[in-house]
Amino acid sequence: MDMAKPVSMLSVALAFRGLARAVAGVWHDPETKALPFVAAALLLTGTIFYWRFEDWTIIQSLYFSVVTLTTVGYGDFAPTTAGAQIFTIFYILTGIGVFVALLASVAQQYITQKAEGPSARERLSARRHRGQVD
Known about the structure:
By secondary structure, the protein is mainly α.
């Protein structure tokens, strides 16, 4: 049996666990607690705006909002009216700052948690050692 696949799946699972812990850390930190709410409000605002004024479906509007705020910009959708284009300019300028702050906070929490605690490999080694000693 090829052991590389289970090990890589475990690594991915542990990475996602670390990311989830970092997001939870941002959520519980009084200084960054508002960022997820502001990011969600921006996504909701953009989704409603594009749904209403561009005549896109809710899914298309949400998709465009996410693609725009994450600066991916596939180019498959674009605002067609001058008003929507002006809104998009301010939406991007505001949204990029909020999303960069949110992602920076998550990254800082992740780095802090990694620096403060033992690695998964160290914890596993300690468990194995305790099992052999007991």
